[in-house]
# Entry
Amino acid sequence: MAEKFSKFRDAGTGIQVFLTPVVAGTASSSCSVGSFGWLIGLTFTPVFMLFGIIRSVLGGLFWSVYLVTSSTALLRMVLFIIGFVALPVEYVSSGVSGRKIKTIVGGKTVDAKKGDLVISNHSSWIDLLILSYLFPGIKFAVPVIPEGAGDVEVAKLQSKAQGEGGLGGKRTPKKNGMSANTRMVTPNSNSNSSTLQINNNNNVKSTTGSESSEIPIVGYTLLTLTKALRFVGGMPPSKTQLGQGTRVYTNLDEAMKNESLGESSSSSPLALFPEVVTSNGRALLNIAPTSLGLNPHWSLNRIHIVTIKYGSPTPTCPTSVFSVSNLTSWKNIFSHLIRILFFSSPVRVVSIRRMMITKFDLSIEHEGWKEQVVEFMSSMARLKRTGIHWWEKKDFLKMIASRRQ
# Structure
């Protein structure tokens, strides 16, 4: 199957950044149970399901009370029930070498303040839970795109209408259709992963070898944890999807100014996922300058860079990554949670690293500060950078939708 999705493989690194991780024949992580993991997993499935009943009841109770009280202790219990018994946070310096300073096993940090910005890689809805625990009261700066720009479901329905000759009719071949056996040729691996070709139609040709129209970000909205979870795994929301009464700021500067100058009563920082959409955690998507397009001269105090990496999936530990969704993200998140609670070991693995830098540590006067931040993220998480852009995920989701028909 991976070959059929090679269109979305980065030519410079050879990494496919959207496909959900699956169990490899030689998978190894602290969840792994050895070469006979599949047999042990089958044996322990009834035990996992029994534990799942207990975990789901307790987790539902803690989550419900958390929604009312916003207690970080309750959110920590939710993460514990999901499987993250330990949340070790490694603090690293902002030096060139990225030297580790210390490790805090508990992972509890309270030094982020109003006017700070938290920047993190993004591969799962669990990222939001972890950041909300590490930075109590945090809000998420979510990009907003034009109406219909990220609509995958419409394309799916139109595709079905073209392929069916009325109710009960036979499916007719689609022009330029793609069968299940269609092979997508991987572009020349010698191409530079950071090179872009832009034509007169504003189409961006990325390192995947396919032409994708860049989707503009028309603004940012600030969402709480529960509201932000709705849009994880798919494309960014439009104003219509956000609903009436949701304020959309023209840019990230305006959103930061709103939080920093006291218009908001919140004393917590803002979180931003510069990759915009979720990847599978194997590499970083190409982070466009517009994704970090704020002017930190006056609006930003400190930047907290956080990297989150989950353990590899095994027969007894399905992946924590949630890279593919659609407009009904709540349903998909619930399905993912069911697999975690009822068909998984009660212990999961995550690696969290954190760096705090001030605007005086960066070349603020130049655009190069954004490159510095991205480079820090890459080295901290040991993730390669790719030339694949976030808006290419729309084509990926369209392909997924067409294969599910």
The chain has eleven helices and 13 strands. The radius of gyration is 22 Å.
